[in-house]
Amino acid sequence: MQFIDLTAQQQRIRVKIEANIQAVLSHGQYIMGPEIQELEERLSSYVSVKHAIACSSGTDALLLALMAYGVGQGDVIFTTPFTFIATAEVISLLGAIPIFVDIDPKTFNIDPESLDQAITALKSNDPGLHPLPSTMSNELSALNPRGIISVDLFGVPADYDRINTIAKKHGLFVIQDAAQSFGAEYKTKKACSLASIGCTSFFPAKPLGCYGDGGMCFTDNDDLTDTMRSLRNHGGGNHKYDNVRIGINGRMDTLQAAILLAKFDIFPEEIELRNQVASKYNKLVSVFSPELSAPQVPPGLLSVWAQYSILAKDEEHRSAIQDNLKKKEIPTAIYYPKPLHLQDAFTYLGYKEGDFPVSESASHRIVSLPMHPYLKEEQQQEIVELLKLSLIVVK
Ligand SMILES: *Cc1c(COP(=O)(O)O)cnc(C)c1O
Fold first, then answer.
1. What are phi and psi of 365, to 5 degrees?
2. Where are the alpha helices (DSSP H) in the chain?
């Protein structure tokens, strides 16, 4: 069994993929070919946002968004420690400081109440209110709170009504890290349309993936769009060797856009299939152990199930689950075994164990099961039977 089966999908649309690749080979515009604009138009209309800016990866999408806001030294960006490294890496890369905020135990997304406390703690330089980077206690009052990067973990949008209200109150921008949630919905609005800039990834394993690296930024703002288009192409101005700002080589390959156009045709149907697979898992798991199911999708939201994760009782139980499945050659994965505030890369901030207990507990207990649109009911039944077995082992 495969954790994510990309072959079944490819078999369905192989002819279209090959035709799209052939078209690129024929016109030869490998950089910024016509497929780039076509993809930007199709996806911006799908998301119902005015502009889409194709780029080289989800990481670069986040980087471009922060750069468009001019984020740099002395700035603070609030984000979650229970995410992929890229979310916070881009903040540090620009010389800004990530301040971490714990997650909601039900959705695993940033907890709005803690977010509000963290902003207040920074503004009043009071680490008693919320854990702050301890190595910077002397500089904290000089730092400038600028924005929030919220993450839609596993495909469930964060609580944007509350996040946007808090951001407005404190004068911060919001960037939606929708790398795992492209196609998801929050109260009829699509992921990538829920903040000032929405960023997604087309890494092969994401819900909509290409055959390499790719990403996209979405926004309704014309000025931010112009800046991001310039930044992705070395800060280019009006003609080819005119450079008006320091940028990056952040373009998407035409070939990846061509592949995405073929895959996007069946994407809405795949979201439905993913939800059917998830409902089946939910039903099978809840019969014997409802406390295993996680995370929950709040009412009014649609998840794209980038991962189907469960929460084991403890680390020992999780190992038993993984071992049992492995014996039958069923792969599992842990997203994420170490929250970001405890990663060596961030020791310079001076966070410590215990700062974000919900994230820490999740990192010890979370485990993701095989999940893709073409997973069969028999396979799910086999997986859940083995889950039951591991429950007995730890009793
Ligand atoms: C995958 C991912 C990214 C980075 O995307 P890449 O395309 O791999 O650079 C960023 N944030 C989150 C939450 C992700 O899951």
1. -120, -20
2. 6-27, 34-47, 58-68, 86-93, 112-123, 160-170, 222-231, 254-264, 267-288, 315-327, 357-365, 377-394
Whether the link from the prior residue into 281 is cis, omega within 30° of 0, is no
- d(CA 17, CA 1) in angstroms, rounded, equals 25
The response to whether residue 180 sits with its C-beta less than 6 Å from ligand 1 reads yes
Contact at 8 Å (CB) between 312 and 318?
yes
Question: What was the pLDDT predicted at 287?
Answer: 82
Q: Is the pLDDT of residue 191 over 60?
A: yes
Say how far apart CA 148 and CA 163 lie, in whole Å: 9
- 180, 182, 210, 260: residue to mutate for ligand 1 pocket, most atoms within 8 A of CB: 180
Q: Is 147 in the pocket of ligand 1 (CB under 6 A)?
A: no
Give the pLDDT of residue 295. Answer: 79
Torsion angle in degrees (nearest 10) through CA of 189, 66, 177, 267:
70
Query: Are the C-beta atoms of residues 221 and 198 closer than 8 Å to each other?
Result: no
Over residues 82-86, the mean pLDDT reads: 98
Which pair of structure tokens corresponds to residue 202? 């087309």
**Percent above pLDDT 90 for the chain:** 91
Is the distance from the beta carbon of residue 179 to the nearest atom of ligand 1 less than 6 Å?
yes
CB of 155 shorter than 6 A to ligand 1: no
